[in-house]
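Reply to dn_fold:

You asked what the input looked like. This is it:
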Amino acid sequence: MRSSTKRSLPVLLVVALAMSGCLPSAPATGRQGPVRKVALIGDSLTFGLFGTTASAIEPLRQRMSASGISLSVDGGPGDTLATPWPTHAPWVDQLRARIQSFDPDVVIIQSVLFPGADDPNLQANYRQAMAQLLDVAQSRGAHVYIVRHHRPTNSVERHAADVAEQLQAEVVAGRGVPAIPLDWWLARCRRPFVADGWHLSADGARCWADAATAAINQLRNAIG
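and this is what came back:
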């Protein structure tokens, strides 16, 4: 009885944490084997806003390195998953190159921006871009996550974020791609935002790194 209880405690703890909202509802599906490489592709909430706000890259790299995990980061500020900043390559091309050269065990897609969110043509393009990105991300069996975000203070940008996440959820449905609850972590983070109430402060960047790390640890507990 004692041995059985000991084995069940970690599972019960993971379930309790997931129900609390700080973890994805379940680990992402993907190939078996240890998590050694994580690829993140994101916008200014990951990179910082063109050097004016904090980046989450180094805090996350430190947390991954402590667990023996290598991190690669693509994307950039001003990007959407469908339309990159004018000087950036499309995300699908960036991720395809990363999959080929790095072969990550986990891919995290962090994207909240969507200008023109009410345009049906842009919505169709967005769905197509997300589907292509997901196909590439899962092409070698990587575990894939999207991100559930806090909302911008600007009403137009807030609505755009709502539409973006709705479209992402539609595309990933049934493909074993859960959401990292970044909004949960930032709601409990000390001074997470800069003056615009949306982009991340240094504390917020660390909390984003904590959210991603918690999801990776949940996955590692599930697959070894």
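Confidence is low (pLDDT under 50) at residues 1-16.
Hope that clears it up.
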